[in-house]
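Inputs:
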Amino acid sequence: MSEHEFIRIDRLSQRFDLSDPWIARLISRRPKQFLNAVDNVSFNIEKGKTYALVGESGSGKSTIALMAVGLLRPTGGSVLIDGHNLYDRTQSQLEHRRTRRRLQMVFQSPYASLNPRWRVGNILSEPLRVFSLTDSQSAERRRVHELLEQVGLSQSDAHRFPHEFSGGQRQRISIARALASRPEFIVCDEPTSALDVSVQAQVLNLLKRLQNDLGLTYLFITHDLAVVRVMAHRIGVLKSGRLIEEESTQSLIESPQSEYTKMLIRSAPRISRGTTGISFT
Amino acid sequence: MTDILLSVRNLRVVFPHRHGDLVPIDDISFNVKKGEIIGFVGESGAGKSMTGAAIMGLIDDPGIIESGEIWLGDVRIDQLDAKRLIKIRGKRIGMIFQDPLTSLNPLKTIGDQLVETILAHLPVNADQAKRKALIGLEEVGIDSGRFNAFPHEFSGGMRQRVVIALALAAEPELIIADEPTTALDVSVQAQVLELLKKLCRERNASVMLITHDMGVIAETTDRVAVLYAGRLAEIGNTASLLSSPRHPYTRGLIASTPSVEHGDISTHLYQIEGSMPRLDALPTGCSFHPRCQDALPRCRLRQPEVINESVACFLYE
């Protein structure tokens, strides 16, 4: 184990039971059927670094994301955060709580992941209350204002509702909410795929700045290799639940080994092709 | 006869509202030539899809085409009544939507849906329609053995192939493809775009490709129109527009798109500050000026016109 290693995903598996009801199985004499959504996946993330998981829909990216933050119990393997096993049943509730404060998540759609009936101030102070991080209302308010400024919004935005913001601003609110509990590890599940290009650049730059300022570790889930190129230190390529290739960003994109990775890189649309007239396929 | 298939002149779409009218499309003009693929790019709310809807006569209530003209060949189509519109919609203009699952009927087999479309638009009998449907499926790469399959039995990419077969079934002259690959994986996207391109070339059909992805525009289109807040910002030949964009918005859009070809973790992406204004809060003058680094004093006062049918910006006057 390297000393900088912060997250260790160890032989992680998730198997979903897709079997018919037992009586139907009995009549048709079919065995149980399982889907291995994630199959024996292992990787580490160093502290302060970004690890990107790329793959097509159905490859198991988001399932790993859920397991990495403690939202879905794996059917096999373990998730170790700074040495703490996230799914160790022998640890006390309190210990789990302490570990969970250090993990947060930013979801894909800023339209679905913010409660439309809560004001932004309320959305941002919920994690503070859940983890009892502030001892007075004024401290809570100060922290909310600090968070809003950290993500490039203004203090007065605390009184507004999510619908009053554009998609990019909403994703900033999601990021501020993720930062509220002062986490060390943030899982970003396609954080910009619902955003327009010009806004995507703003959000990606913000995530990078926060990583530099706060020393955050990211697990970045995406299907967009162009985004990965500027965001990640290391990349893992997933296909049908298996990690088929893993490398540092530069070498993976410039000299991919597997046919699948080559195909993914080849299919990424690029502007330069339009100026030279080269067609794909 | 000219080679212009579709001509949109000074189109203005208005949604009346008690606090002042909303104008999702304001004074847009462009031509689509026979056999060309023209891209429409812009952020959500820029008016891309609304332009397509206006051409199809599909603007929702209470929206109206307040002024301007839409010509398909020598027929003016923006004022047709429903009965005559039906002869054009689906027949002369085909449509491909973003989500193939919601644009197919889940209760009918894909074969039935194709046959139904063909019978509605072409003077053929049931046998001929079925034969045409089978050919159509084959052309989009779907095995004829799946003629009787239902939409849910197909993957996203295959469904979009079915939708393409449906859109092409009545041999339209123009296809409006509204974000046809946004819901698909990149590898499938490449296949679907290549297929669309090939089939339209073979038939000499024109395509209006609506997308927000500059990469897709680059790889698929002959010409491109950039829309911003309901107005045309820039229009031109794809290769020259991408290699030397003129409008500050186009330049920003291209610069802020990350590329798989270069950059690394230390790259700071170019960003256009702010976001596109809402329709009920459009700034005066050029609607891009609050985000524009090169804004001149007059940009705040007046709307720039599209100069030489290419760019709407005072910098080039």
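The first strand of chain A starts at residue 5 and ends at 17. Flag for discussion at group meeting.
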